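Here is one chain, start to finish.
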Amino acid sequence: MKVKEKITVREAREKAISDTNYYFSKTNTPIIINKMNKYDLKSCCFRSMISQHCLAWNDYEHYLNDEHCYNFCFKIISLDIDKSITNRPEAACICTYNIFDKCISIEIIQNFSKENKIINGSMMKYSLLTIFLFLTKIEGNGIYLINPINNEIKNYYVNVFGFNDINKDGKTLFLSFENLANWYLTLI
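Its structure:
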């Protein structure tokens, strides 16, 4: 009997990005997901500063090369013949993975493109899709969402995606892997 080898966070991250891009390709969704780099982070900082909700993206630079993080951004693929990819992120997310409780924490997440119908209204869905694929590979237990930006957004996460407000103070939401998997089944 062959013993299953443990997959590393890096391997799970790479596979989740690949599988998410495969999903986008198969569903003809003109988006690509990439691991966030320092240029993407700078773009996030700038775009957040001029948005309705300015978030402190620059506080997360040290997460870019952390082995226990899953950071990603979504970029639009042009519908023109050349199918070029925009250089700037239209949305982004920085997550940390705790190897002890086997949960991922969404530290910061933002949609920068309110006018883009491909991302707007679907940012969290696409983020949960790739996080689900990551947790599947690494055999994770769930997702924490830290400090939702306001009560309206918190209620959206709770009512639409099934997150639980675990401390009843709106600061820490949790979605179990089982509930995430049930949500994922509605996508396919």
